[in-house]
Amino acid sequence: MRSLCSRPVEALKGDISIPGDKSISHRALILSASAVGETRISGLLEGEDVLATAAALRCLGAGVERGGDGVWHVHGRGVGGFDEPAAVLEMGNSGTAARLLIGLVASHPFTSFFSGDASLRARPMKRIIEPLAQFGAAFETREGDRLPLAVRGARNPIPIAYTLPVASAQVKSAILLAALNTPGLTTVVEAQPTRDHSELMLRHFGAKVTVESAPGGGRVITLAGHPEIAGKDVAVPGDPSSAAFPVVAALLVAGSRLTVRGVGVNPLRAGLLDCLREMGAGLTLTEARQVGGEPVADLTVEAGPLKGVDVPAERAPTMIDEYPVLAVAAACADGVSRMHGLGELRVKESDRLRAIADGLTRAGVKVEIDADTLIVHGRGRPPLGGCAIETNLDHRIAMAFLVFGMAATEPVVIDDAGPIDTSFPGFVALMNGLGARIGDETS
Ligand code: S3P
């Protein structure tokens, strides 16, 4: 374990770009491996989570080679063309890698074994097992439907119509990937729209996906199985979930001004920006454009006072990974913030609802959890800090509390910075380049 200390700073200034989007990077690899021919991916996130997907696809028989910085070449097997993996597929810390790849192999006539780190082995898999079993796949799992698990893929997969019981893009995507090697039409209904990167990228590769509105704001997504998908170059935009850390840091540290270039602004990922605007943040989006079929812009933020915010439950799917850092902003804001509908945070890389509440409490902030609502009492001045935080294999808890340390009056120490490399390699160097003071406790 590598502990790190984040000290209060004067101002953060700079003009940066951010590593590639993690969700889109997984999908770019999986779909290019499922296409016929070669794909060149640029801007791929080279974090451990995405590298786990790349390694698994190699075990399934795809050619996946690194060409240079963020540039990868994939030789696809064509839909239904994967081989039985000869080894256990190790997913590391990545729920997305595990759930999407289990979906992919669930409609292939062979057996695969999946495992992961202690965090991933504690996460629920029933949510994908239930729909994938309807395709005809069979599962053996550890107690509580957890990894390690074995999946015996369906020999003759049957298309399904499935309504998501939880708002989860991973579950939706697992079903759509299983549907690729399944004849006929598979339909997923989601009551609350979740990130649509799978739908956009399936279309980019030439699959037939239709999306219709469902009553009450939901969506009905239909994929025609056995599409002829062909290799096609993909450019991955910057990850808004990673950008969130320097952006919030710059809003909180007086005198800061920061521009982040080429950030994804897909509306199904942009809930944090809505919250920050409602808190009174100075942020502007310029140079709106498309990268790889996804909306992208440059984002400039300037530090200034923030006020408390009430975040409705319906917004949760559009910012599900941003609550740790939003809670840090709320702790520095003036007034009470209430974030509703956070049940899913309990089953992320760690129990994030608990981790946020415990960490902020230790740092001298008043926090309450009322069922699935997080209540943070901000006092409009820098909180105390001066505490040690357990990251529990959770990259976003680690980064959120390093940001907290920049805005607090006393340093904040995290016990383990290792998990940051799962999603944001280079985070510490990038932040220190802006003026942050993250280093060893003794430095
Ligand atoms: C992701 C979906 C979200 C998110 C995760 C990435 C994806 O998870 O938390 O970091 O790429 O589909 P859920 O689908 O479990 O909400």
- Average residue-wise pLDDT: 97
Bound molecules: shikimate-3-phosphate
Give me the count of strands.
24
Rg, rounded, reads 21 Å
- Name the beta content range: 25-35%
Question: Strand order within the widest sheet?
Answer: 22-23-1-24
Note the quaternary state here.
single chain
> Uncertain regions: pLDDT < 50 for 5+ in a row?
none
Structural class: alpha/beta
User: Helicity level, as a percent range?
Assistant: 25-40%
Shape: globular
Number of helices: 13
Largest sheet: 4 strands, mixed
Structure characterization notes:
The chain is of the alpha/beta class and 443 residues long. The protein contains 13 helices and 24 strands. The strands form six sheets. A four-stranded mixed β-sheet has the order 22-23-1-24. Strands 2-15-17-16 form a four-stranded mixed β-sheet. It has a four-stranded mixed β-sheet with strand order 4-5-3-14, covered by helices on one side. The chain is globular and about 60 Å long.
Keywords:
alpha/beta, 24 strands, binds shikimate-3-phosphate, 443 residues, 4-stranded mixed beta sheet, globular
Q: What's the arrangement of secondary structure elements?
A:
Elements: E1 4-7, E2 13-17, H1 22-34, E3 36-42, H2 48-59, E4 63-68, E5 71-77, E6 89-90, H3 95-105, E7 111-115, H4 118-121, H5 126-135, E8 138-142, E9 146-152, E10 161-163, H6 169-180, E11 185-190, H7 197-204, E12 209-214, E13 218-224, E14 234-235, H8 240-252, E15 257-264, H9 271-278, E16 282-291, E17 294-302, E18 310-311, H10 323-332, E19 334-339, H11 352-362, E20 366-370, E21 373-379, E22 385-389, H12 395-407, E23 410-414, H13 427-434, E24 437-439
Parallel strand pairs: 2-15, 3-14, 6-7, 10-11, 18-19, 22-23
Antiparallel strand pairs: 1-23, 1-24, 3-5, 4-5, 7-9, 8-9, 11-13, 12-13, 15-17, 16-17, 19-21, 20-21
The structure holds shikimate-3-phosphate.
Residues 23, 96, 168-170, 173, 195, 320-321, 344 line the site of shikimate-3-phosphate.
